[in-house]
Amino acid sequence: MITQEKYRTRVKELLASNSVKMVIGYKQGSTADRRRPLFVRSFEEADELVLDSNCIGNLAGYLVTEGLLSDEKRVGIFLRPEGIRSINILAAESQLNPEQIIIFGFDTSGREVKALQGEQAEDFSGLIDSLKEKPPEKSSDALLYRIDQMNTEERFAFWKDEFSRCIKCYACRQACPMCYCRRCIVDSNQPQWINTSSHTLGNFEWNIVRAFHLAGRCVGCGNCDRACPVNIPLRFINARMAQEVFESFDHYAGTSQTQEPVLASFNKDDSETFIL
Amino acid sequence: MTRILFSDKLDNCIARWRAAGLTVFGPVKTDTLSSYAAIEHASDFDFESVLPDRSIKDLFFPQTEPMLRYTIKKRAIDTEDFAPPNDKRIIFGARPCDASGLAIDDSLFGWDYKDEYWIQRRNESVIVSIACTKADDFCLCSSLNLAPDSSTGSDVLLRPLENNKGWVVEELTDRGHEAFLAIAELLQDGSDPIAPIAAVPEKFDLDTCVAWLQNHDNFESKFWKEISMRCIGCGSCTYLCPTCHCFDIQDEGDTYSGIRRKNWDSCSFALFTMHTSGHNPRATQSARWRQRIMHKFNYFPGKFNVNSCSGCGRCSRQCPVDMGITETLQKISTLQP
Ligand code: SF4
Ligand code: SF4
Ligand code: SF4
Ligand code: SF4
Fold first, then answer.
1. pLDDT digit string, tens, across residues A102-159
2. Complex ipTM over 0.90
3. Which residues of chain B are at the A interface, by a Cβ-Cβ cutoff of 8 Å?
4. Contact B137 A29 (CB under 8 A)
5. Which domain holds residue A126?
6. Position B98 in a domain
7. Distance, CA of B47 to CA of B34 (rounded, Å)
8. pTM for this model (two decimals)
9. Helix and strand tally (H, E) in chain A?
10. Which end of chain A is more exposed for a tag (fewer CB within 10 A), N or C?
11. Which of A21, A22, A24, A30 to mutate to probe the B interface, most B CBs <10 Å?
């Protein structure tokens, strides 16, 4: 409540002084537990802002909406640490100018919400470095543990079964702040690189392509996983890729605005386990 | 006195139907998802959930459907059609909104071009609906001239008795009658009390909404942008919807042979209306959301005299950004026509 009030006041200050044209936050949704994105442009809208432990979705994807930042005006946004990491990646990949983004950082533990110190992405580098120091989630998740214990065949069978439900809605892509391509590879049809049908092959192609495109870029916000209407546990795929790039290349996605994309750069010390 | 199917006879019924060559489908729940799927025993059914996550559409209009196989030869192209499946089915425990959804799409798939895949599956399927005794905050059938005990689209309607004892049987079509002949001796006469149907409060006045949608001036209203600003265009509202019926035809294969398929498509996608030139008449997400609402409550009823929405609420239930038909129509019903 305290953080919510503090942030509402700060949003109004920024709007009153014309320092931002809009703040992207959360408001009450259609059920007690749901929060929905809110675009604040007025004091009345600022009063609708809600900040509590149910504010889960990563809102960073809205920043790359076509035309939003092209007038060079500033936009405020409510972000958890993963959201701030996505701002760093978007900046590193030249998708936005981080100086235009005013961050209302927050984190939650249990039902408690705490404000994070800082307003510009670089203010949070200490925090993000400290997250990197914690090894990537070998989470206590029972399903993740089960997947980790599987041998290759079992794991293949597990994912084949999960992917069999995929309906190729691409909600995972649309919900992902890192999937900002104006034309996704699955939408390229001259030639059609990836089958559009959601049969076994098409579903594998899609989910594997997305896993590779997210390797070293996924910040683990869980947007894809929550958006999937058929409940495929997509978070595990990307968490596993994050773990691989961390172990192989000491790469933790979104540490800075100058971080090089792991699959598009090399270092002479990179491990070469795949070169015989 | 009414005819009753008692719950403890259901396993027998299933066995009879299966013996008569019918595949029995119904609402099934797994750890990950609930949907309509083939079952073998009464215990496979999920009658507890308000409704399955996936709609009944999947059984009639699958996400991907092979239509023909082609081979390009020196001087000719050989093609071979995939015949529509010939599988007699009974879908037991359909929700009335799902059954109504089928009736809604019948008007389209049986219109100028007869979609043989849809029609064949419809002709081979008996829909046995169960009136809803449970609803959630997202259900909106009552706002759409339907109800938790609507019989539209059903061949048989079952009304649950109190304490899950069974169902009162109401045969509605010849197809339903025929399917229930096979189990006639398992039915009993009785006068057990019927459980009250679910209360689904009306959420908006549909006529007011339709009048607003029909006013051409409102096509360019600022309302569309405001209401859909948070839509991320994921399309899952259309894919879970029992009445959304858009598809795309794709050839898959190599240079000389392949399969032509009919795959779901959605007006929520930017690519849906993209021209080869690169021009897109629905360039923004708000134009796409407007299409979804206009199509369901203005264009479709204009052509077929029925709304293309049966009020199942799936679109709102699963939208990742908490949008949906209800919010939009509620807001429209407060606007000046
Ligand atoms: S959101 Fe789920 S169903 Fe949709 S394309 Fe992604 S994995 Fe498939
Ligand atoms: S309304 Fe919701 S479910 Fe539908 S396309 Fe938009 S974000 Fe996706
Ligand atoms: S538009 Fe929404 S409520 Fe209506 S039938 Fe489709 S999914 Fe159900
Ligand atoms: S709402 Fe969109 S996807 Fe659904 S039937 Fe209409 S045009 Fe097609």
1. 999 999 988 899 999 999 999 999 999 998 887 655 556 788 888 889 999 999 999 9
2. yes
3. 32-33, 53-54, 63-64, 137-138, 229-230, 232-236, 239-240, 248, 250, 252, 261, 263-264, 266, 269, 271, 316, 318, 320-324, 326-327
4. no
5. 2-133
6. yes
7. 11
8. 0.93
9. 10, 5
10. C
11. A30
